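Sample intake — Glycosyltransferase family 2 protein
Collected from: Fontibacter flavus
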Amino acid sequence: MQQAAIVILNFNGEETLRKFLPSVVNHSSYPVIVADNASTDSSVDFLRSHYPQISIIQMEDNFGFAGGYTRALNTIRGEFEYYILLNSDVEVTPHWDENMIAWLEKRKDVAAVQPKILSYQNPDFFDYAGAAGGYMDNLGYPYCRGRFFETIEKDQGQYDDEVEVDWTSGACMAIRSEAFHRGQGFDPAYFAHMEEIDLCWKLRRMGYALYYTGAVKVYHVGGATLSRTSPRKTYLNFRNNLAALKNNMSPFKWRSVYLMRCLLDLLAAIVFLIQGKGDHSMMIWKAHRDFRKIAKGFDKYFGPMVHTKGKIKFLLWRYYFLGSRKYLNS
């Protein structure tokens, strides 16, 4: 069994690969594998002609981020001790992959670790997707050190540490292959967004720890496949967040949280309407309508409830009513 592989998921991302693969190839020690979600552009031809050393896993359809990764990693199951999952729109830094694997080698109780994720467009600031480690508040809203909702912090060394987190970002994480497959990978029903939160929640319930290390940093563009302003993304975020809560909370906890979330999500839909974003408002309704289709009831299999590692409760109240915009100030 080889030690690790860097696995990049691609769908019609030729231009993104042209821009970001050079940093991956130049700064990485482990082999790179590109899993292609049935692209219709020239991505595969580009890879074959310019990067013959890169292995390609070609899938017969676009299975989304969640299904694409799970199918791809199932095809190489048993070949690598670790997977390093990397978005195609990430610029890496020297020794990034070696350092993350070396970190996991020292912590056998840890399933996955993520680096500091900074913004490619604004390198002095954290990135939206993962920032300095992800958490959940008591109502199931995900947040990060370095990012509360749309407020992004400047990186001033305040998170140059190592901490246990609730979830590691799918934009860039190193994960033990045994843990990934034991947790059944990313649930394909999610298609995209929050599938890593669901998997990480399951892994924590199975007794694994998850960590962030500020000793490694990468730069992420974000929104390369789906903009944060897209109504489709609003739909996926609301639907998949509800599904992750239903999948991982006890029935009693879920009922109380869901009642609150119905009220708060109704308020969010009203705010979207006031802002003239009726399409986003409609997506919240559709998300609530559809989330039960992907809820699987993992609480019956993956073990007991686990407490969140973050210190924030009632994030919406703190953010919008108390004006708390930073993790360290909360």
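Post-analysis note: The CA atoms of residues 138 and 313 lie 5 Å apart.
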